[in-house]
Design goal:
Elements lengths: L1 H20 L7 H15 L1 E5 L22 H4 L15 E5 L3 E7 L4 E9 L4 H11 L7 E7 L8 H18 L1 E5 L5 H15 L8 E7 L15 E5 L19 E6 L10 H12 L14 E6 L3 H12 L4 E4 L4 H9 L9 H12 L8 H15 L5 E4 L9 H13 L7 H14 L2 H8 L12 H9 L3 H9 L4 H4 L3 H9 L5 H24 L12 H12 L29 H5 L11 H11 L3 H9 L4 H18 L3 H28 L1 H9 L10 H7 L3 H4 L2 H12 L8 H9 L12 H23 L11 H6 L5 H10 L1 H24 L8 H22 L7 H10 L1 H20 L5 H18 L11 H36 L6 H16 L42 H55 L8 H14 L16 H27 L2 H56 L18 H9 L40 E4 L27 E5 L5 E13 L7 E7 L5 E2 L2 E3 L10 H5 L1 H9 L5 E8 L8 E11 L5 H13 L3 E5 L8 H13 L5
Parallel strand pairs: 3-8, 4-9, 5-6, 5-10, 6-7, 7-9, 10-11, 11-12, 13-14, 15-20
Antiparallel strand pairs: 1-2, 3-4, 15-16, 15-18, 16-17, 16-21, 19-20
């Protein structure tokens, strides 16, 4: 038994620990359910009656439950014999028996979670249940909805606005909604709002609606009871049969059913709900590092006296409340008096409003209750920063969600602490809610003054929280990326906080490899200390980005001195970059930082389009950034395994390709020359690469196909020749080169000089005519024109033959000559001993081989041999080159062998075919034929797959035919001929003659297959005629021809047609993209054509390996610009980017979709205004009618009084009728209004401090003693008794003392030392912080909670210091300050509104200011005392931000005025 119990406990503990860790582990549903059950039975309790005592009915206990629902021990208790039923003694706690999932059935099969909990359950346990066991994310906002518990009517407009606003605020902020949970009143309206949201099909997450209801009033609660939990419990909603009980609302998502052991009593859950809300409000908001707690707001609809108490207590606890005007009863009462002066919120006015909004229910309200409610309503409207009334008739709040959030911000905007901390607290809330609209209207106003450093935390939070709208807002309001990202540590934190994505996984692998490599290296030298590890650094990010961009780029971040630098893998590194090489980078090559680029890169690698778009606008080199983004995204999509994620990456890459196209198009339209410079300039921000290279690496065909890029390529293709030269002129000059000196051929430099000279002449002519100076940034000065000299004779000759265009033409001529020589050798001069022509052919081929080797190793971009070889092999023409050379070498070897001489010639003939196919490459430069070659490539692929399909029919028919006609033919060549070759020829019309009897000829075949030149005869019968079924072979042939000739061939034609149509639109783009490689090849190719090129190869070999000279660097494809020119070009590019973005926005605003949306929004706005005006007019009419009715009643009373006066002889006509039922006179009301500002407030708080005594409610109008208050019956209290003493008798001595501030609601001495005035002295010790008297400071006393106060205490006479200061300051300092009391200045002396005041005892304070010299002896003693106090004494600046009580703040303000300081 003991072992079994021990094993059960072990399993139980395992389940509980698994439940705690389940949010971090992926556990099976059954195990999670068991873990939840174990945790709930361990932590959650219910309450049940353990002593049955008959109540009103015979079979019902006083707890409200029937006898049959009590346990046997409760019916016949042995422990409680002779006792009467007591709630505190006879109700016990036992493990709960109702929890799990609750299913309501019906439409949509709504399912929630529930648990029956005891009233004494710890709120921390409930919060743990909600977050850890039920897996709810902690809220960013808690909305407590309260109001009428009974069904009430809401106007359609109010209901729609409430539903829409409540769901919107919960959805956007991630809030929890807490209600009473039953299907009545305001809880029903909340449930309907949640239902409407669910039916809308929104995918933005579940709305959390938590119902905290009383277990004892739930109808059909037996369906929820099961000791092991119900998964799910089917709960029937029987609204008709519920009686006095209530059904749970089927639209709430979670239920906490509070049990106190009784049944039928409402309101049991109020206390636990209040504790739970307070517990949640103390939790940290968002991340644990945040100093903010979860904000709570109370939303009120309708409601009665209980709701008023809820509002009052909530506001006393600092919870803001939002009242919906028009929802009924107490909500409308408060809405009516909100904003009015307290003098108008009288008892009579509250009577009228209660009667108006409560109807018949008003008749049951006692007068004392209305007096108390009046006092509470006055206290409520005295806290306007916590009270927000949503009025539909006004357009100030917009919707309910805005009103709720504005109420929270207004509550956090405490007047005592206005400043950057207050604005920071509000901004933190707005970011947590992701409500940029609230931040724009409420936070970033003229009142708030922000520095960039003040908003860095907000920027970090918005970036990590993926809130792009806030990022834009912060950038607009002063955040500088230069300041924010200047520290590399901030950027590292951003990468560490990056959400889970493909790049983060790759980065983690890189860091892990670096850690292992570092550990192995350190183990060789010193022993590794435990806990040492490598985290994400800028170096790791740089290496990973370089891997994605390409190894030809340089690192975008310099190697970090804090982290050991690790090189990339061999695959990524073109040349092994060692640690010493990385450290020896020249200052010119050192990567430069662009903070906009850093943020853009961080957003792009996590595939975040919104944030990347914002950061891209901040990039300096925006076109390079967009092209780099396409490269990175396409590479990640290629390496990733998630198809959906890869598709999103490709879509984002296409977006940034379009952005780059748009910016470059704008640049090219503005200035073609600058646009060309942008393409080939080396970008210091993106690894010293160029825009053109990035576009080619990313396979951005659309970008390369732009006219501006093609113009640059054409310019490079023509070299120094003008692009306008006709081809025929170039061809003539290639042969008759002296023509270049006769202007037969135009050179580009001459063209530029001539054009600029003509332009300058035109400008001078205009200036001479107009007499004004024309400003033209493009105007070339004379010095620059002189520097651009006309090409000399030798330079023109070199420019002609070094132009890629001329090289290409010479190579075409050379290739045709090579093919002609090859054909002559093969057909005419192929002897056993090689002839001179054949030897020349071998030398020619050797020059071609050398050129292919040069192309393979020529790497001006720094790709590395592996990538360069990969790029070489991926090119079809290079494959043909390699294949032709290999075939030629093999054929040459065979040809030199006498045995294989003929086989060698055959191989060389086949090689000639390959060389001829290679000839098609010359057409790729042609704008007409180049795209057609691309179509041919695609059709060849289609042909390959078609032949596979066709071969199925050919083999199927051929084997069947051969098997039917021929019996056991063992000759392989004739089997292949009959089974494959003949069926293939049938497709082209060569029909066989051996499938029917008519065409059979026995002489054309061999009977036994012995004749190798004849096929074997078919099976013959006795008549020497074929025995095969003729009908079958003919049918087979017809079917074969039907499918092969008609179906498949037409299918091939259709495929070709589809391919042509599909590729035709893109061939031009593809051709322009592939044109680059041809141009680059011939740009780097030596000028001489084969075979003369071999001499240049020899020269290059000697130059590179013997003389060790570096290769010549050309600037056509990559150019390093001077710093000044670089800055000017980037500034111009930024201007073009802004133009492009502006034009894009204009196009979007003018699009049809945008116009439709704008029109729909305007119609909705107009409709809302019309409905609002209709509501306003009806409300105004009701108000006017109510006033008219009131005037009629008063007129009737006045007339009745006149009639009574006339009838009565002794009545004085000068008296005025009393038209009100209250006991105050007009004079008293006038005096009341005059004294309103002086009425004490703290002295009338309902609960007397540090006691259980409750004050008698004293409304504002009843505070003065002069005003009659017949109902006034305050209690007596004096704290000197051992217990709180409440006595209805009043000693005679109390009549001698009356509080000068008026009634307080309590008699006696209270907590004060004696009746009458209790003197108090507050000491304000001030000093100047420095000799310049810039800041005035005062000495404050602090406690452990951070509360500050002025040093002071009770005294017998204002001429002496409080004795309590001896303990705070020390005896020596106390004596020295006492000596200076007489020299002090009285700042204030008189009555103080203190919460301890009573009708007969009050506090009078004297505030004394003693200003100390910084060098005085007392000052030195105070400094020592401050040090010894460890924070109990501290100097504070005299300002309005100080945290003091209201009366002490007023005193400090007077001290500031005394010293001419602004408070």
């Amino acid at each position: 038994m003991g072992e079994a119990e021990m094993e059960s406990r072990l399993v139980h503990r395992l389940a509980i620990s698994a439940a705690r860790a389940s949010k971090h582990l992926s556990l099976s549903p059954s195990f999670q359910r068991y873990a939840l059950t174990s945790w709930i039975r361990e932590s959650i309790r219910k309450r049940e009656c353990c002593f049955f005592e008959k109540g009103v009915r015979e079979d019902v206990c006083k707890c409200g439950y029937p006898k049959i629902e009590h346990v046997d021990e409760a019916i016949k208790p042995e422990d409680f014999t002779g006792e009467s039923w007591d709630r505190n003694r006879h109700i016990r706690e036992v493990p709960t028996d109702a929890f799990g999932d609750i299913s309501f059935g019906g439409l949509g099969q709504k399912t929630g979670k529930y648990a029956r909990v005891s009233t004494d359950t710890s709120p921390e346990i409930l919060y743990q249940l909600l977050t850890e066991q039920w897996k709810l994310s902690p809220p960013n906002l808690l909305i407590s909805v309260t109001g009428g518990a009974k069904n009430f009517y809401l106007k359609a407009r109010i209901k729609n606005m409430f539903h829409r606003g409540l769901i919107k605020v919960a959805q956007t902020t991630g809030a929890w909604i807490i209600t009473g949970g039953t299907h009545t009143g305001v809880m029903k309206h909340v449930g309907k709002a949640v239902r409407d949201y669910a039916l809308s099909g929104s995918s933005q997450g579940q709305i959390v609606a938590i119902g905290v209801a009383t277990w004892g009033v739930i109808h059909n609660k037996d369906a929820l009871v099961y000791s092991e939990g119900c998964f799910p419990a089917h709960y029937p909603m029987d609204l008709k049969g519920q009686g006095r009980l209530s059904c749970l609302d089927n639209n709430h998502t979670h239920f906490l059913l509070v049990d106190d052991g009784t049944q039928g009593q409402y309101g049991v859950e109020i206390e636990l709900r209040s504790h739970l809300e307070k517990c949640i409000s103390r939790k940290r908001l968002g991340n644990k590092e945040s100093g903010m707690t979860i904000p709570v707001v109370c939303v009120v609809l309708d409601g009665g006296p209980g709701t008023l108490n809820t509002i009052y207590n909530a506001m006393l606890n600092g919870t803001p409340c939002v009242i919906l005007e028009g929802s009924g009863r107490i909500a409308d009462v408060i809405a009516q008096v909100a904003g009015q002066p307290l003098s108008r919120v009288t008892i009579a006015h509250i009577h009228q409003l209660m009667k108006r909004f409560f109807g018949q229910e008003y008749e049951k309200f006692p007068d004392l209750d209305i007096i108390e409610w009046t006092k509470k309503i006055q206290d409520i409207i005295r806290m306007p920063h916590l009270l927000t009334v949503f009025r539909i008739s006004e357009d100030t709040h917009g919707d309910v969600d805005v009103a709720i959030l504005q109420a929270l911000l207004k509550a956090s905007r405490i007047t005592e602490s206005l400043g950057i901390e207050c604005w920071k607290r509000q901004l933190e809330l707005a970011i947590a809610w992701n409500r940029v609209d609230i931040a724009e209207t409420e936070i970033f106003t003229e009142e708030s003054q922000w520095k960039s450093s003040d908003l860095h935390w907000a920027m970090f939070s918005a970036l990590v929280g993926n809130k792009p709208q806030f990022v834009s807002l912060l950038l607009e309001n002063g955040v500088s990326l230069r300041d924010f990202l200047q520290d590399e540590e901030t950027l590292c934190k951003l990468y560490k906080e990056m959400p889970g994505c493909f790049f983060l996984r790759k980065l983690a692998k890189r860091v892990d490899r670096a850690r292992r490599s570092k550990r192995r290296m350190l183990e060789r030298r010193v022993r590794t200390l435990p806990g040492q590890g490598e985290t994400i650094s800028i170096t790791h990010v740089s290496d990973e980005v370089r891997h994605l961009l390409g190894s030809f780029t340089q690192p975008i971040y310099p190697p970090s001195s804090m982290t050991y630098h690790f090189n990339m893998t061999m695959e990524d590194t073109p040349s092994s970059l060692s640690k010493t090489q990385a450290g020896s980078i020249s200052p010119h090559d050192e990567p430069q930082r662009d903070l906009g680029r850093d943020l853009f890169l961080w957003a792009v690698v996590q595939n975040n389009k919104e944030l990347a778009e914002i950061a891209w606008e901040q990039c300096r080199d925006c076109m390079s950034a967009a092209l780099a983004a396409t490269n990175i995204l396409k590479k990640m999509a290629e390496e990733g395994s998630d198809a959906d994620e890869a598709e999103v990456m490709r879509a984002l890459a296409d977006h940034y390709e379009r952005q780059a196209i748009g910016v470059f198009g704008e640049c090219h339209n503005s200035d073609e020359d600058r646009a060309k410079k942008l393409l080939v300039r080396s970008s210091p921000y993106w690894g010293r690469t160029t825009c053109l290279r990035l576009a080619l690496e990313a396979d951005d065909k659309s970008f390369v196909a732009q006219s501006g890029v093609q113009a640059l390529l054409t310019q490079i293709w023509c070299g120094e020749l003008s692009v306008d030269n006709p081809v025929w002129r170039v061809l003539i000059c290639m042969v008759f080169f002296p023509l270049i000196y006769t202007r037969f051929l135009v050179f580009r430099r001459d063209e530029v000089i001539q054009r600029e000279t003509e332009k300058n002449e035109e400008i001078k002519t205009v200036e001479n005519v107009t007499g004004s100076v024309i400003r033209n940034s493009r105007r070339l000065d004379a010095a620059r024109l002189q520097r651009m000299k006309i090409l000399g004779s030798w330079s023109k000759l070199i420019s002609l033959y070094s132009a890629p265009q001329v090289k290409f033409y010479w190579n075409i001529v050379s290739y045709f000559a090579f093919l002609f020589l090859f054909a002559v050798v093969l057909m005419i001069d192929f002897q056993a001993t090689p002839s001179p022509a054949e030897l020349l052919l071998y030398i020619w081929l050797l020059s071609l081989v050398c050129e292919e080797v040069r192309q393979l190793f020529h790497d001006p971009d720094g790709f590395g041999f592996r990538k360069k070889a990969k790029m070489y092999i991926n090119e079809l023409w290079n494959i043909l080159d390699v294949l032709s050379i290999l075939l030629f070498i093999v054929g040459l070897v065979f040809r030199l062998n006498t045995v294989l001489f003929y086989a060698g010639k055959i191989l060389l003939c086949m090689d000639f075919v390959v060389f001829c196919l290679r000839l098609m490459a010359i057409f790729t430069i042609s704008k007409t034929l180049g795209p057609k070659i691309i179509i041919v490539k695609r059709m060849m692929m289609d042909m390959f797959f078609f032949m596979f399909l066709l071969s199925i029919w050919v083999v199927a028919y051929g084997v069947a035919k051969q098997g039917i006609l021929i019996n056991n033919d063992n000759r392989l060549d004739w089997i292949i001929r009959g089974a494959i070759y003949e069926p293939y020829l049938i497709i082209f019309g060569n029909f066989p003659t051996n499938i029917d009897y008519a065409a059979f000829d026995i002489n054309t075949c061999s009977m036994n297959g012995t004749d190798p030149l004849k096929p074997k005869c078919p099976v013959l019968n006795e008549n020497q005629t074929p025995a095969f079924p003729e009908w079958l072979t003919i049918i087979m042939l017809c079917v074969y021809l039907l499918f092969a000739n008609i179906l498949l061939l037409n299918l091939l034609i259709a495929i070709f047609n589809f391919t042509f149509q599909e590729v035709q639109d893109n061939t031009d783009r593809i051709w322009k993209f592939q044109r680059y490689e041809l141009i680059k090849e011939y740009h780097s190719r030596p000028a001489a054509p084969p075979p003369f090129i071999i001499f240049i190869h020899l020269y290059l070999f000697i130059r590179l390996l013997v003389l060790r000279r570096p290769p010549i660097i050309c600037k056509e494809f990559k150019n390093e610009l001077p710093q000044i020119e670089e800055e000017e070009l980037l500034s111009w590019e930024a201007l073009m980017k802004d133009r492009y973005l502006l034009s894009t926005q204009q196009e979007q605003s003018q699009s049809m979709e945008r116009r439709i949306l704008d029109t729909a929004q305007k119609v909705t706005t107009m409709n809302d205004r019309l409905e609002r005006e209709e509501e306003t007019s009806s409300a105004a009419m009701e108000t006017r009618l109510a006033r008219l009715e009131e005037q009629v009643v008063q007129s009737a009373r006045a007339l009745q009084w006149i009639m009574d006066s006339l009838k009565s002889q002794g009545f004085s006509s000068k008296e005025t009728p009393s038209l009100t039922t209250t006991d105050e006179s007009p004079d008293s009301l006038r005096n009341t209004s005059e004294k309103e500002d002086g009425f004490h407030v703290n002295a009338r708080q309902f609960h007397y401090p540090n006691s259980k005594i409750k004050r008698f409610p004293v409304p504002e109008e009843k505070v003065p003693w002069e005003v009659g208050f017949s109902s006034y019956m305050p209690t007596y209290y004096a704290s000197e008794d051992n217990e709180d003493h409440v006595d209805g008798s009043e000693p005679e001595v109390l009549h001698n003392y009356r509080n000068p501030g008026g009634r307080t609601g309590i008699r006696g001495r209270g907590a004060l030392s004696h009746l009458g005035p209790n003197l108090n002295v507050d000491l304000v010790l001030t000093r100047w912080r420095d000799s310049e008297r810039s800041v005035l400071e005062y000495l404050a006393v602090g406690d452990n909670r951070g509360t500050l106060a002025l040093p002071g205490g009770p005294v017998q006479s204002a001429d002496y210091l409080p004795v309590t200061l001896k303990r705070t300051m020390g005896a020596t300092l106390y004596e020295k300050i006492s000596e200076k009391v007489s020299a002090g200045t009285k700042v204030f002396e008189g009555y103080v509104d203190d919460c301890n005041n009573t009708d007969n005892a009050w506090v009078e304070t004297t505030v004394l200011n003693i200003h100390l010299d910084r060098k005085s002896e007392v000052m030195l003693e105070i400094i020592h005392a401050v040090v010894r106090s460890h924070g109990a004494l501290q100097w504070q600046e005299v300002s309005g931000k100080t945290r003091l009580a209201s009366n002490q703040r007023d005193s400090l303000r007077q001290v500031a005025e005394l010293h001419n300081r602004k408070f």
